[in-house]
Amino acid sequence: MANLRELRARIKSVNSTKKITKAQELIATSRITKAQRRVADSQPYADEIENVIGRLASASSLDHPMLNEREGAQRVAVLVVTSDRGMCGGYNHNVLKKAAELRANLEEKGHEVVIYVTGRKGADYYDFRGVELAGTWEGFSQDPDYAATHDVRRHLIDGFTASSEGKAKYREGLRVAEGEAVQGFDQVHVVYTEFVSMLSQVPRAHQMLPIEPVFEEEEFKQGEDMLSNASDDLFADYEFEPDADTLLAELLPQYVSKTLFAVMLEAAASESAARRNAMKSATDNATELVKDLSRVANQARQAQITQEITEIVGGAGALDDSGESD
Known about the structure:
The chain has a domain at 30-212 and 240-277: Pyruvate Kinase, Chain: A, domain 1 (3-Layer(aba) Sandwich), CATH 3.40.1380.10. 55% of the residues lie in helices and 12% in strands. It has helices spanning 4-59, 91-108, 120-128, 150-162, 244-325, and strands at residues 75-81, 112-118, 135-137, 167-168, 182-183, 187-195, 201-209. α3 (120-128) links the parallel β2 and β3. The longest helix has 82 residues, at 244-325. The chain is elongated. The protein starts with a helix and ends with a helix. One of its GO terms (molecular function) is ATP binding.
């Protein structure tokens, strides 16, 4: 049986760790609420710009590089969204595993994959394995800021606009000499973690560029005569100035930039939820470990007391025996 002093020292150590994990759990819980609120606050703008682009798309020719697949696409950019810190369970492992699956699938199709990473953990993962990274950004995984994420968002848009045959200008975070232009790409994919609930966060791989238009079929119901229909809904007929194609060309980069930022907000909420779950599990395990160690310590203490009593009784008996012999 372990020494009683060692058991007490270990119980003290586990209790100290438990305080840390409990504090981390409470901090992560508060950050989840903040992240969810930021996602909700950004939703009205996202809905409105989608509506505007939808109206523009219905009135335009849809002849824009961001809406059309390029023939003979060669270079593909993959942005992997990870965390800056650990202690978040399998959050980083799952998203990196999803990125590896996407990379293998793209390379099987003959594409050259260029990897970009946000988050220190993802950068360390690829650097340790000797994987070449085109760019890394860190410092905002838990609390994305629009200004802090500007370079990564703009580079992905500029790189796609330049295509694999052109060059995109230098931005902070790219792993090239300062001021050096970099080769563009023909597709942009993002691998991130979707926030489903407090207990469920699912890694997703999404093609960001080119945007895949969604065509919806509208059912027409004929009314009582040929000049009317059965629907009472009224739809506005818009006239655009300048023309719809020009407005669409200006708004599509903003739409993509907004979508990328929304992905980072979603990943931030997922990271906090994963950290909260991991820290809660660690706190619960520490509580159970303290109970087990306390039980063992009590047994050791009882065994020690029993031994001491036995020694006292044995000593007293020996003294009585020696007195009788005298």
